[in-house]
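Marked as duplicate of an earlier ticket. Keeping the data here for the record.
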Amino acid sequence: MQLSQHLTLMLRTLRLSGLLETLEVRTRQAVEQQASFVDFLTLLLQDEVERRAQSKLRLRLRRAAFDPTKTLAKRLAAKLATAPRPRPITERAGDAAPP
């Protein structure tokens, strides 16, 4: 299917250029399944919503500048290694020795 330049321009104007990525596949799929227009449009919009969610996640992860080599397990292990160890009860100041 050849997309017209007019359709491409309109999708970009509406900031829906992500639809261009899946439009041909979804159109073919809708024809094969004899899907209604509403079902076809729903699939296209679901693709766009998913694409935008993935883009937002990538942007947030990039802005957060997470170190991919650090894991929660490594962080907890490092924190436990440097945490002060509690003294036994008999060594604490102010406590009386048990009889």
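See parent ticket for discussion. The chain has a mean pLDDT of 86.
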